Amino acid sequence: RLASKKRRKLPLPPGPPAEPLIGHLRIFPDPASTAEVFHGWSVKYGDVFSLQVPGETVIVLASEKAASDLLEKRSAIYSDRIRFGYYDSIGWGDAIILAPYGPFLTRQHKLFSDAFGKGVVHVYRGVQEREANILLKGLLDDPNDFDRHAIRFAGGIVTDVGYGHHIDSLDDDFFSMGERFLQYATAVTAPSLLDLHPRFAYLPPWVPGAWFVKFIKETKPFMDAILNNNFQRVVEQITAGTARPSFVASNIEAMYGEKHDAEHERATKLAAVMIFAAGFETTWRAVTIFIAVMLLYPEVQEKAQEEIDRVIGRDRLPDLGDRDSLPYVQCVINEVMRWEPIVPFGLPHRSVADDVYNGMHIPKGSIVFANTRSLTWDESKFHEPQKFKPERFLPKPEGAGEIFPASAVFGWGRRVCAGRYLAEGSLWTAAARILAVFAISPEKDANGQSIKPNIKFTTMLTRSVVTACKNKQSSIILCLTVIRNLLRVIFIHATNGPVN
Ligand code: HEM
Predict the structure, then answer these.
(1) Considering only CA atoms, which residue is closest to atom 3 of ligand 1?
(2) Residue 416 CA: which ligand 1 atom is closest?
(3) What's 94-347+378-496's CATH class?
(4) Domain segments of the chain: what residues?
(5) pTM across the whole model
(6) Whose CA is nearest to atom 26 of ligand 1?
(7) Nearest to residue 374, comparing CAs of 46, 9, 10, 24?
(8) Can you tell which superkingdom this protein's organism belongs to (predicted)?
């Protein structure tokens, strides 16, 4: 008890000046600027700083050392999550991304590591390659619609891997359900009373600020359907002998012959939805950001293409078996993820016990962010960190021998991204195949001059590309992909036949 009293006397990590009662509420940044504002504060207040908002202490970790010391080495303390009132009220509060640290989370982690661990993830190669070829075909037919093609690519992988469902087109039911789900997921990121306590879900809907009461009522039937119906469909396919291999199918089959385990069934249902929730938007954004960055850096693109042509020749498409022989391509992909990280301020962890770090008190229940942006802009780890330089990851003397900050990109300790190896394989396959087939270049104006792309990135839940060529008021980039290898295009047609 004495030790804990002493601990509490220690100062909190420093932070910007706070206002009485409301602390930093008024200066707390919105998601679009959180990563950059946190980075600015870390320069001023150090690599561990704190903020106060009513009822909460927020700790921001802005160096790899601090993030690793706390989130990795003391992960028994820092692996809880904050509560999301909406998900608690629809019964999803213990799904893997949202779950408090405990046995049900461990159970879902096991399901993920059995299905997506480093040693097993190769079984999805066929799905990744097929979807990458459909992506290429889409880019060939309509390059300006590349964002939709990337959506299809990401959605095609997660629905096939999760439920064995092959999306035929963007009109597919599964797919439209997924998009609707993402709309709801984005809507509920708005802070509300519900985040303070789940009982606010029972407020009368006319109470000012209780918008979520109506929202829960309207969306719960759909969320129940997404959880149960897709699962049930696989159960029926198994009975009929028509099920394709998938995460859900293999878990249902594992249950056969054993006593019905309701908890296992629920863990499987929730985990399968989370494959979609966590894997769809992230993979989609990673592909569109890759395309945008290639448009900005034609010289990098050419160098990667030269490597592909030299190493694997021009008569086939690269596949994951070529990954180790294409180091520059890997550096380009890693640099895209470092330069424009998909989750720029990470997902918040919550601490479950009082702690002391470098003489500072970190109270039990703190919300802890590892600010990816600061970690990827760390000048002690990366030379000219704000510049896009893939060769930084090549070994010396060819490159700078810098290390890809995997934890900054994919997270920490016991909450590290459970789909990381699937994500890396999907992105690699899409990126290497796009590079193999197309030169991504800006549109030309009426005089045949390239229009300088004016690309901006923004953050809501994840990082995305928002603006376009200067002369267009479009919300996506308009670029032209030029076929640079006709042979490979013929190959796509030959191996894929009709797209579905
Ligand atoms: C480029 C793609 C992806 C990126 C950048 C990414 C990044 C992340 C990050 C930063 C976290 C939070 C880690 C933390 O709290 O410290 C996370 C968690 C998670 N990711 Fe990913 N992810 C990607 C793709 C995927 C895919 C494809 C799947 C599913 C197959 C997936 C499944 C998960 C799950 C289940 C969690 C929650 C783990 C937990 O809370 O215990 N992710 N991811």
Answers:
(1) 282
(2) 13
(3) mainly alpha
(4) 1-88+348-377, 94-347+378-496
(5) 0.91
(6) 279
(7) 46
(8) Eukaryota
